[in-house]
Amino acid sequence: xxxxxxxxxxxxxxxxxxxxxxxxxxxxxxxxxxxxxxxxxxxxxxxxxxxxxxxxxxxxxxxxxxxxxxxxxxxxxxxxxxxxxxxxxxxxxxxxxxxxxxxxxxxxxxxxxxxxxxxxxxxxxxxxxxxxxxxxxxxxxxxxxxxxxxxxxxxxxxxxxxxxxxxxxxxxxxxxxxxxxxxxxxxxxxxxxxxxxxxxxxxxxxxxxxxxxxxxxxxxx
Length: 221
Description:
By secondary structure, the protein is α/β, with parallel strands linked by helices. It has 2 domains: 1-65 and 179-221, no CATH class; 72-177, Ribonuclease H-like superfamily/Ribonuclease H (Nucleotidyltransferase, domain 5), CATH 3.30.420.10. 51% of the residues lie in helices and 16% in strands. The protein is built from 8 helices and 5 strands; from the N terminus they run H-H-H-E-E-E-H-E-H-E-H-H-H. It has helices at 11-23, 28-37, 44-65, 110-117, 130-141, 158-170, 180-203, 211-220; strands at residues 72-82, 85-94, 99-105, 123-126, 150-152. A 5-stranded mixed β-sheet has the order 3-2-1-4-5, with helices on both faces. Helix 2 (28-37) packs across helix 3 (44-65). The longest helix has 24 residues, at 180-203.
């Protein structure tokens, strides 16, 4: 499928712009400067629209190929401010630190945790937040999870707490999200690039991680 059909810019230009934004702690205006150094004149609002559009596409493409590598998972959430209000990014990784899934929710409550946990059917390690525990009990009641496989330990869950730092650090240069739709799409792109970078590091590639090469391979797969 041609993901760049109808775009006024070449697909390589778009891939570089959104790839750098998702990978590094940059603002839209930083991307404009980087592109200008390469002889490409693009407005920061155009870059913003690319980010909002391709973040969701990258998530769909990544979701097709991701595979669980472990039977032990870590689940947690971190706060993301959207239009002046706190929202909650639910995240799951395995015990090797590889990303399994993520979901941005307006509330940190039972329903948000329940809908996220329904997709995670193996051994879970979570924190002790009450809404999460209630959701796990309901998932088990629905027959989707053996309650014995759940472990509640802040120490075992340190792995995902540390993994949250990448998302937090990436938002330093941002002017903030205006609505949950664009926030979810932007964070999806950030999460996907972060996930693929961790996979490359785990596999011990001698050439290291290249965000542009990785995105190009995913787009044509």
